[in-house]
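The passage that follows is intended for readers who have already worked through the single-chain material. We present the inputs for a multi-component assembly, then the predicted structure in tokenized form, and finally a short commentary. You are encouraged to pause after the input and sketch how you expect the pieces to fit together before reading on.
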Amino acid sequence: MRALQYRQIGAAPEVVEVDTPEPGPGQVLLKVTAAGACHSDEFVMSLPAEQYVYGLPLTLGHEGVGTVAALGDGVDGLSVGESVAVYGPWGCGTCAACARGAENYCTRAAELGIRPPGLGAPGSMAEYMLVDDARHLVPLGDLDPVASVSLTDAGLTPYHAIKTSLPKLGAGSTAVVIGTGGLGHVGIQVLKAITGATVVALDVNEEKLALAREVGADHAFLSNDDAVASVKELTGGLGANAVFDFVDAQPTVDLGAKMLATEADWSIVGIGRGVASYPAMGLPFDVAVRRPYWGTRAELIEVLDLARAGKVSVEYETFSLDEGPLVYERMHAGTIRGRGVVVPNA
Ligand code: NAD
Ligand code: ZN
Ligand code: ZN
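Having made your guess, compare it with the prediction:
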């Protein structure tokens, strides 16, 4: 089969021929319908050799949907041909975090060498992919798989960040979304769907701000120091009750810190290189800094339900597997509207 692999530190990913995997006991083989490209892939491919821990070659893709192609021994509850989404943050399944469905916070994954697909295990940017356990699959039912694939990360990650900040986001509250790309444009919709917050979107790119307005942001401003004054003005001088930073660059971390209200949640969701360094007295009282990661299995089911209810959808552009390297070039150039989605078996 063909797969998009990152093969050499610093080089662009390439489409190569690899063996089609076969499912071992407990595993499920999917014929991949769609695979989303996340900015985290670009981050991983930007790491120098001494910080790179994902193995080479690495088949990319940690957002995946497919149809069940074959079941390993002992797998039941799934049928061949069924359309499913992959829950990506694989954990051990038995620690206390996994027991409550929070495999994203598995306490034993590192020790057991369990890695998510596309971030250590072979990912979804291939004609077929192996899923290590049927519990990491959620039926898609009648959801369009190509339109839904990015709900597994660009939907699930903001949903988890927002859901755990719900106590801060009642009627009359204000939430700021910094970075309205793949994650951010879904985050805006989740905020509108499940909170009472007024949503302020910030980005450096006017086209992304236009998308933010289209998907429901109440206000959208260029991400610069003027935005601090705008947020203060909108909130009667109080600041935002939650800031979701989907970038984590030094300018966004510096900006977020200046717009927090007393008791605000400051959620740094982006995986970048921003440094938050403040004297404790420099932040409003009771600000909580959060660094959420992906989401729980239950939350993935909830996000898919939100999409089924028509309350959240992903803007996306499709690419063939051969165009896989182009997705990352376009992401780097900031020219993808919403998410780039690879359709490997088109
Ligand atoms: P993306 O490229 O689709 O979107 C990034 C957006 O940020 C773009 O719209 C871009 O214009 C904007 N931006 C860039 N610099 C900015 C700045 N200085 N100020 C304001 N906006 C700026 O990326 P994505 O796939 O949505 O991922 C967003 C971030 O979230 C990445 O850092 C990614 O690694 C991270 N991520 C984290 C998790 C997690 O679990 N914590 C999960 C997925 C992705
Ligand atoms: Zn991701
Ligand atoms: Zn676990």
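Commentary: The mean pLDDT is 97. The first strand starts at residue 2 and ends at 6. How closely did your sketch match?
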